[in-house]
Design goal:
Blueprint (H helix, E strand, L loop, with lengths): L4 H12 L5 H12 L5 H10 L4 H11 L7 H24 L9 H12 L13 H16 L3 H19 L3 H13 L5
Helix pairs in contact: 5-6, 6-7, 6-8, 7-8, 7-9
Amino acid sequence: MTEDPQRNFRSVYYEKVGFRGVEEKKSLEILLKDDRLDIEKLCTFSQRFPLPSMYRTLVWKVLLGILPPHHESHTFVMKYRREQYKDVYHALQVIRFISESTPQVEVFLRIYQLESGKLPRNPSFPLEPEDEVFLAIAKAMEEMVEDSIDCYWLVSSFVNLFNNKYKDALPQLYIGLCSKALGPHAS
């Protein structure tokens, strides 16, 4: 198999000047052009290479099952998810669990609790350890994703996946997240 010397030269040059991801970005664009996205290939790609920020949210939504692999369904599905988010948001406002001044990550938690049937009777009840984990994940995701509705769906899907696969690890994750948040003097 003969490789194009121009391509090799460009790749080496780009790597030397700090643009290592040029070839990876082209590979990802090729994967994303398929009519039906190949979940397995996207998963392998995202494990091997950093995702360019312009494609990160799309790839995460597909890998977490928020969007189906078929491109033509993406707009319809996201429209439905946006409506669902807004309906639950409104319901939480009506029952006075949230207000306009409620921090966004707390809104995400309350929506998640309502949708999973775990909404406490009173918003002043203390948070469970898994709620603290949800909030920590939501805060991290909020820094990476601009759209709040996309952020909610990514967080809730990630937490559901995590709960289904790694439920036993939640106490250790909670301790680890709390100790980092409180600093080195936390016990």
